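Justification of resources, computational component.

The compute hours requested in this renewal are based largely on the per-chain cost of generating structure records like the one below. Each record pairs the submitted sequence with a full structure-token output. That output is archived, and it is also reused by downstream analysis tasks.
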Amino acid sequence: MEKIRCAWCGTDELYQKYHDEEWGKPVYDDERIFEFLVLESFQAGLSWITILRKRENFRKAFDNFDYKKIANYPDEKVEELMQDAGIIRNRLKILATISNAQKFIETQKEFGSFSKYIWGFIGGKPIINMPKTLKDVPATTEISDKLAKDLKKRGFKFLGSTVVYAHMQATGLVDDHITECWVK
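The structure output for this chain reads:
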């Protein structure tokens, strides 16, 4: 019998694997949280499957998402990334990734970890929604609005409320698997 999944992942094997193994599962590790912040910020204006297909290229290009290294990228590295056809070559997003790595470290220092900071917006426990269909899943919420506003105040870029809500879903702060989904 075929597994019932959330409709957004369709029949693409990579999308299904991501849906089944990662999406909506709580992430507390700062390195993984940063990886998703980078990927989500590059996804703005594009489809998530485009980013998933380039994920390994991003991993290689951005030193395995090592935010400490990224925070110190020199101009030469920006130019190198601009020539890398395996990633999304958007100068503003590349520069934002470097700046966001710096802000990420600042936020870690303030809260002890970025995980404590971000999970603090929901009281440390995942929000489990029970949407019946994909149409019942919002693009933003009051919490994503608040988090996006706070990130912006801290100097983060390319992390508006829609991107932040997608990040919350990806890292399991929010579980939006539809009620019939086998992952529920």
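The chain has one domain: 24-175. The mean pLDDT is 96.
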